[in-house]
Amino acid sequence: LGQQKGLRIVSQLPVGTKERIAVVQVGEEQFLVGITSQSIQTLAKLEKPLKEEELATNAFASQFSQLIKKNDKG
Q1: Which of 3, 19, 9, 13 minimizes the C-alpha distance to 59?
Q2: Among 3, 15, 28, 49, which is disulfide-ready with 8 (CB 3.0 to 4.6 Å)?
Q3: CA nearest 7: which of 23, 27, 35, 29?
Q4: d(CA 72, CA 66)
Q5: Domain count along the chain
Q6: What one-character-per-residue DSSP string does 10-47 give?
Q7: pLDDT (tens digit, 9 = 90+) per residue, 52-74?
Q8: ∠ CA 44-40-9 to the nearest 5 degrees?
Q9: Residue-range definition of the domain harbouring residue 24
């Protein structure tokens, strides 16, 4: 997944040898997706899209941790 018209990977985080978590921008919306060698699955829609300055810091890792905790509870 590179960049297609209206679709781009904003940030990604490896979570295994062939697995990763990515934030994908689709128009004005952002989605957290899980990517493996076998599939791509939407994990969540971000309520507050990440901004460029947040991506330059550890904000992505922080928001990712919050989403994981939220997902575990619900």
Answers
A1: 13
A2: 3
A3: 27
A4: 10
A5: 1
A6: EEEEE-SSS-EEEEEEETTEEEEEEE-SS-EEEEEE-S
A7: 766 666 666 666 667 666 666 65
A8: 70
A9: 3-73
Identify the sign of the CA torsion 23, 25, 28, 32.
negative
13, 22 contact by CB (below 8 A): yes
Each residue's pLDDT tens digit, 4-47: 568 889 888 888 899 999 999 999 899 999 999 999 999 999 99
| Angstrom distance (rounded) from CA 5 to CA 22 | 18
Q: Under a CB-based contact definition with an 8 Å cutoff, are residues 32 and 39 in contact?
A: no
pTM of the entire structure?
A: 0.67
